[in-house]
Fold:
Amino acid sequence: MLLKDEVGMLQRVPLFSGIEPAKLKLLAFTSDRVNYSAGQILFRQGDEADAAYVILSGRADILVDSDSGQIKVAELLPNSIVGEIAILCNSSRTATVRAASDLEVLRIRKDHFLRLMKEFPEMTIEILRVLADRLSHTTADLIDARTA
Amino acid sequence: MEPSLARYIWTHTRKQQIWILMIVLLSMIPYFMSFDLPKLIVNGPIQGKGFEQPGATLPFMRLHYNLPFIGEVQFFSGFQLDRKETLLALSFVFLLLVVINGLFKLYINTYKGRLGERMLRRIRFDLIDRVLRFPPIYFKRVKSAEVATMVKDEVEPLGGFIGDAFLQPVLLGGQALTAMLFIMVQNVWLGMIAVVIVVIQIVLIPRMRRRLLVLGRQRQLTARALSGRVGEIVDGIGAVHVHDTSNYERADIAARLGLIFKIRFDLYQWKFMVKFLNNFLAQLTPFLFYMIGGYLVIGGRLDVGQLVAVIGAYKDLPGPMKELIDWDQDRQDVQVKYQQVVEQFTVEDIIAPGIAALTINDPGPMTNPLSAVGLSIADDGGAMLLNRISMQVKPTETVALVSTPTGGAEALAEAFARLNWPESGKVASGADDLLELPEAVTGRRMSYASSDVFLFHASLRDNLLYGLKHAPLTPVTYDGAAAEQQRWNIDEARRSGNPDFDIHSDWIDYASAGATGPHDLFEAVRRVLDAVLLSRDILDLGLRSSADLTRHTKLAGRIVELRAALRTRLEQEGLRELVVPFEPGAYNTEATIGQNLLFGAAAGPELADKALAANPFFASVLKQAGLDRTLYEMGMEIAEQAIELFADLPPDHQFFQQLAFMSAEEIPAYETLLQRLKNRPFEAVSEADRAMIITLSFAYIEPRHRFGLLTDELMSKIVAARNQFYEKLPPELQNAIERYDPAKYIAAATVMDNVLFGRVGNNHPDAPDRIRSIVYEILDELGLYAELLDVGLDFNVGASGRRLTGGQRQKLDVARALLKRPDFLILNRPLSALDQRIQDKVLRNVLEEARRDGHSPAIVWVVTSPAMAMMFDRVIVFDSGQLVEDGTHETLLAENGIFKELLS
Structure:
């Protein structure tokens, strides 16, 4: 997969969809392309968060530790991003992510990501918009849940 | 040190000074003979005096003297020579005298020069010898760069002066006196005039020069302070940048340079002023001669002949006078310099020379207890760090010194190490004052490590073994020219009062490290490095450095085996894809295009990095392979992409680390280049521009940069070009490149690259770490672990060891102290840069290592955390400079005192 294809992939990630392609290209160029085989761990719950991952191809499982061992809570498909919240708010990983098949991801380093946001305010606003959108959805969901 | 320079010179060079004076007097004979000869030649054979009759002959070399009472005595009647023969003979005598005079001059100058150089060597050595004997407190007050400049620069002019120190006044004084006497003989009154002027010169000029001396002293002091400040800036460059004070430093330096300029300019002004006056006075005399002498002649009281003779004789006076005055100036100048230096090097309480006397034999163990008796120690400001402490450390005992922040345990440890001298009381070994014991005893039977580590600018190995280099233990035998050189070395060293210890001897005291020689020393080194947990760091350094193949032959010899082992292991663990190996006939996708083309490590500057594309031979290979256009187009594409991506970013942006093709500074240049070349056909582009663009393609790695520029066809072309390159490699480039050969060790590459013999895939997270641990395992299995550690020990630690981290430096210091296997091991918060967990681990290891093989040294450890005290036989607690508790860990815990408080 070439850099320009990666840019196309990134554009399909909601978080990045409003950002101009030139910036996405820079983000892709400065990120590492990493391959995992099935079963390999991308990161573990409790680890310090140093990067976000965009799935380019393959599948991955999100696992959460519980009293009865690890439970799979979600599955990641291509074009999805994982770990972005943790690098934005300096928290540790809230779940473990494991490759479920041969997996190709773009690893966006935390410092690069933050640096880009600082450098290009329009990108930050775009990300803010997506996050606010998510929040309003969550709030709406919450109200629905309460009233139901 | 001798405060008077003249006496210092006289004491050390008396015989030589007298000898050279004799030679100079002897040289006067032919010198004066050569004065007389031209007259003889002109008057005799040329003008024909004594050859009036044709065919007349005169005796040549007739020796005859008029002796009193006896009358004329003839020793040799001489050869009878005619006019032409006489001319020839006399001319040859003249030539002979020229040669003799020249030879005398050569001998005298060489002798004086050598005398001066020897004295310079002696003075410098004396100064450094004193530095080695200064009491510790002195070093808190001086800047090292100032001491260095004193030893190096300030005594330098002394060398030039020493040869002339006594010779010049005697000689010039003699000449001046003769001329004066001659004037006096001609006419007393005119002589008196000359005397008066000379006296004025002698009195006035030195008086005026006094200001020159003052300025000279200021010049010396300001220059010394400048070098001190420069040294400080270099040492403290971190602090300068951290606090944005570089402009403050600039201002300070500029102010100092301004002051130095002012002093130097003043100096020039005065110097030329004095020169003017001196010249004026010298010229005043002939003026008086002409006026007064002429007046006397006109009055008939003096005949013309006498006046002319006086004026003629006076010509010989100003020269020697001026030189004499110059000599006096030099003398005062060097005397001031010398005094300035000597003052700085004269300190109280200098260590007696015998304390550090060279001792070859092992001084035997220290079996007496080490004790502090009424020991008080003050800091530089006079505050008491320790107040009348008395305590004793018995041999084999392990003692933890626990201290509150103002406790003073550190001062006690320093006192045990002789680094801090008592204000009152003493530190004693048995009944002996520790400060009076030879360093040969304390330096070998005791060791000390602290948090304040000093490392020398040398390899890790040299630093580690430094603690064993007490004396030249093995005599070295030299043959042939080397033996001659060695004899000369010893002879010259003695003549300059330097010691003749052989620096090339093996100074390492193997026995003290528990080894018998170089072959088994490594075992001891490895154990202490393991104990302080430094081995892994050194192995990492070893992997990242290139091995010296003359020393590490084993590594090179088994490289094929190593590479094969790595492949097998990667295969077994299913990690095959982690490393893409170099194969002579294949393209390595994880390596750059440049690496694929070159397929070797550059061993010289010709084919390294940026020079590669511009190399004419390499360019011709690319052209023949039809790659020049392709790579050029590729380079253009890369340049466009890179500029598109990066042009908006500020030059210091961290993203530039990701951009392998060009640096931030080069972007503007490439931007304009791109503009210029964009629509130009390839053929119309100059060689230099092509090279600039092609260079960009050399850094390209497809899986990493993902521009989609690499095709299968291009890869095979590159491999073909590689083969072409090596087939046609011209002889002058043979040594500039080491080709990758699966069966050969590549000296120019790092050990890691040699073992890998390939590139780690870009797409695998944590691949480098996994591979490194696999490499260590393999090295261990093949018995090459020690070899790699040895490569790591070659690592140069940099100035003051700054290429190591603070923690590594401290570990190295402890390892060095341990290696000596001392009777008393004093450790003063030695691992403060490490976290507590590692400190505990090292503490445990060190206690164990120190007691290996039934050895049982006393250990005094100033601990950073009271919890560490649990590991020791005895715990002593200090508070406010007092010893407040002393007992075992259990008893102190039971006491509910300060120790328990500190622990909680």
Summary: The mean pLDDT of chain A is 85.
